[in-house]
Amino acid sequence: MNRSGSRTTILVGSAIVVAILGSLAHNIIEFGLAPVLASRNGELPMTLLWVVGFVVWWRIPGARIGAAWFLIALALLNLVGGAIITVLPFGFLPFEPEQTLTHYLAHVIYGLAQLPVLALLFREVRLPANVPKQAR
To answer: Tell me: the pLDDT tens digits for 83-99?
Structure first.
């Protein structure tokens, strides 16, 4: 792997770790450590989706763009569905979210943690196909 590809892999991998940690931070702030360790809020399945998406993106060149879109979809799901919609007191939600500063802070952390994945991978899917990987 060339040096640029290695750098991109490290950046995307790091961005995914930040996204996962943002979700975990939100869940620990909101629900405490015990439910997170027991994966009561879906941490393990979501982490597995992130890891599988990253491995496919990294190791299967023919599936790289599809895997990038999958990872973008996960980040958008977390950003819009997890960080934005669930902080608002909508009547269609099966719960009534707390309207406290701590609750808002947890959602800000959660949302901001998704942005590096989006920035890096939107750039990748928007690059023309004829641009050599060395130029990325």
So the answer is: 999 888 788 877 777 78
